[in-house]
Amino acid sequence: MSYINAYIAPGTTQEIQDRLYELYEKYNGINGNWLRRWLNQLLEQDPYCFDAYLFRYQILMDEDNRVAADKELKKAYLRAVELICRDTGEWPEFIPWEILENRPLLRALYGGVEYNWWKGEPAMEILRKLLKVCPNDNLGARFALLALKMAMSHREWVELQDKVDLAEWFQENAKKFPEEFGEG
Length: 184
Known about the structure:
Elements: H1 14-26, H2 32-45, H3 50-62, H4 66-85, H5 102-119, H6 124-133, H7 141-149, H8 154-163, H9 166-173, H10 178-181
C-alpha cells in the first residue's frame, strides 16, 4: 500500500504512552478521580494524546456522568480536527490505520460521531469523511452510517451492537441505500 499523501499523526512520546498504559492497568472502576488527575497531567504534557481523552470519557461513563463524558468526547474530536486541519483547513486525503500513531487520532475522530449522534446533531458527514480517509473502515464507520440512514437513535444503535453480527446486519440492510453503499 502506498502512503503517498497519507497523513501521519505525530506520535505521543513513549514515556507518555507507557504512563497511559500503566494507568489503564490501575483502573478498577472506583479510582476514577485519582486517574483523571494523572490523565490531566499527561494532557498538559501532550494535548494530542487522544487516548487520554477517551480514557477520561470511559471513566466518566462508568461513573454515570454523561454530561462530563460528552465534554471529553467533544474535546478529543475538536483537538483531532484541529490537528489534521491545521495546515490546509481540510481533512487529509488518507489517514492509514496501519500506522499505529494514527489509531488514537482516528478513534478521537470517531468520538465526534458518538458525541454528535448522542446530542442529536449531524454525524453522517463525519462518518463519510472517516470512510474516505480510512477506507478499510477499521472503526466500523459504515455500520454506524447505515444505522443513521435507518434513522436509529444512538441508544438503538448501542443496543443493536450487542444483539446482532454487524457484518451480517450491514449486508442485509445496506442494499436499502444503494446511493450510499453501492449496489453490492
